[in-house]
Automatic annotation (TrEMBL):
The chain crosses the membrane at residues 61-87, 108-128, 134-153, 165-188. This is Integral membrane protein. Keywords: Membrane, Transmembrane, Transmembrane helix. Residues 1-27 are annotated as: Disordered.
Amino acid sequence: MSSSADGTSPRDDPRRRGRRPSPDLPAGEVREWLSSYVYGNITLLSAAIAVGPEQIEHGAAVWAVLATGLLTFLAHVLAHIVAEGYGEAGVARRPAARRAAMREVVRTARPIATSSLIPAALYVVAWIGWLPAAWMQTAAIVVLAVRIGFVGLSMQRFSGKPLTVGALWAGVMLALVSFGIGFAKVLLTH
């Protein structure tokens, strides 16, 4: 496998792996990735709150969270495809530029789909009977809230700034607000 001029292999490129972005990516891509990450985790947090222990024990919750992640990802990508066509530059864009824009949208939207993997894995543990469904539901909710809670620290890291307690507290507040949104969504829509 070949290396680039800086000694890294193409496999190390976060764009190729779909991992979290590095500080050297353009700010717009990092913003899109963070937006997708927060949105995906809040959406899955709502789904994790909405399922009941019976759904977890019978496996329906596994499919519910996976479907929520995948379908939200597809809706997000579709919305961006539609938005890419807006204006003169969007309509007149060459096919190669359209494909590059779509690759970027899919890459930065991946956190929406991947947010469902941890809750689904936890629900599988309960589905096969290794641990109680209520424990796994609580674990899924806590994991998603913690993922959201670390966004403040991630933003500082992506910005190349030193990590601070203030960023951690901002993430904790974001997690609490996100939990409130998820809980309100379940109350108002189920």
